[in-house]
């Protein structure tokens, strides 16, 4: 070690009064941390020029040659009482130069919300699959399948089922008719006639009912009452099936109980009117 302090770099460790090395710049040296205790340390570099002026740089650092320790369940300055579960983990070390994530990660319990979400997804998936699954033909008629699922052919709805036709009629009435005749079939006084209890709507013979929807009506009193608004024709907008669905909705709603019609009957009236 040189005794001339001019143009020298002195390296001090922690609170030691004597430098651990002194060199003339520039210099590269190796710090052997294996000789130091694990924990915080400080290196102080002091440079002296020929005039005796000093420059100082302090660099704090931490040594960890032993295994790292992780503590879960206890933090600094915690106030504890009773029995406290504490999870300890140690990882890495001087003899393990490669970081191992599997050892560095302290296992933590799966949060409750994650379990709840998983159960909801599983339950929904099971429900969806059971609702959508259709048994192959060779199993559909087996005693076991029938015992658990019953006769699917008798309970399934075809596209022409009465329920779907009723739903179609209600939907078409709402979009094409309710703005005038109202959702409750009461109409608007002086403008649009009511359909609830209307003699045409409740007539056993649906011909006139079909004609009005297909070809419209204007200026014709209903039970002695004249209405200012005209009934527009729907023959160009609606098919026979759609007209039949609307008529059947009107003839079976708001207390009406009249015979329903078929698309074929509507087609016959349409052909005669054309």
From TrEMBL:
Ranges where the Cytochrome c domain occurs: 164-254
GO molecular function: electron transfer activity; heme binding; metal ion binding
Record SUPFAM superfamilies: Cytochrome c
Residue numbers spanned by region Disordered: 254-274
InterPro entries linked to this entry: Cyt_c-like_dom (IPR009056), Cyt_c-like_dom_sf (IPR036909), Cytochrome_c-type_DH (IPR051459)
One family name in Pfam for this protein: Cytochrome_CBB3
Keyword Plastid appears in the UniProt entry: no
Keywords, alphabetical: Heme, Iron, Metal-binding
Organism this protein belongs to: Fodinibius roseus
Protein name: Cytochrome C oxidase, cbb3-type, subunit III
């Amino acid at each position: 070690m040189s005794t001339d302090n001019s143009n020298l770099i002195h390296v001090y460790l922690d609170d030691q009064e004597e430098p651990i090395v002194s060199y003339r710049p520039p210099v590269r040296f190796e710090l052997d941390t294996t000789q130091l205790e694990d924990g915080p340390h400080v290196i102080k570099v002091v440079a002296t020029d020929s005039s005796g002026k000093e420059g100082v740089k302090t660099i704090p650092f931490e040594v960890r040659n032993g295994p790292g320790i992780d503590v879960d369940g206890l933090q600094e300055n915690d106030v504890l009482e009773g029995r406290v579960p504490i999870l300890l983990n140690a990882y890495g070390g001087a003899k393990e130069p490669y970081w191992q994530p599997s050892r560095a990660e302290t296992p933590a319990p799966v949060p409750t919300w994650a379990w709840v979400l998983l159960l909801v997804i599983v339950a929904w998936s099971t429900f969806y699959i059971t609702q959508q699954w259709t048994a192959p033909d060779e199993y559909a008629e087996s005693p076991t399948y029938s015992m658990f699922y019953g006769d699917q052919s008798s309970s399934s709805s075809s596209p022409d089922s009465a329920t779907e036709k009723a739903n179609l009629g209600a939907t078409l009435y709402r979009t094409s008719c309710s703005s005038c005749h109202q959702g409750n079939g009461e109409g608007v006084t002086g403008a649009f006639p009511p359909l609830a209890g209307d003699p045409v709507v409740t007539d056993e013979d649906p011909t006139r009912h079909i004609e009005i929807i297909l070809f419209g009506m204007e200026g014709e009193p209903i039970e002695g009452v004249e209405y200012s608004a005209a009934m527009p024709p729907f023959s160009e907008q609606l098919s026979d099936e759609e007209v039949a669905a609307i008529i059947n909705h009107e003839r079976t709603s708001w207390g009406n109980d009249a015979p329903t019609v078929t698309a074929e009957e509507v087609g016959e009236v349409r052909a005669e009117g054309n």
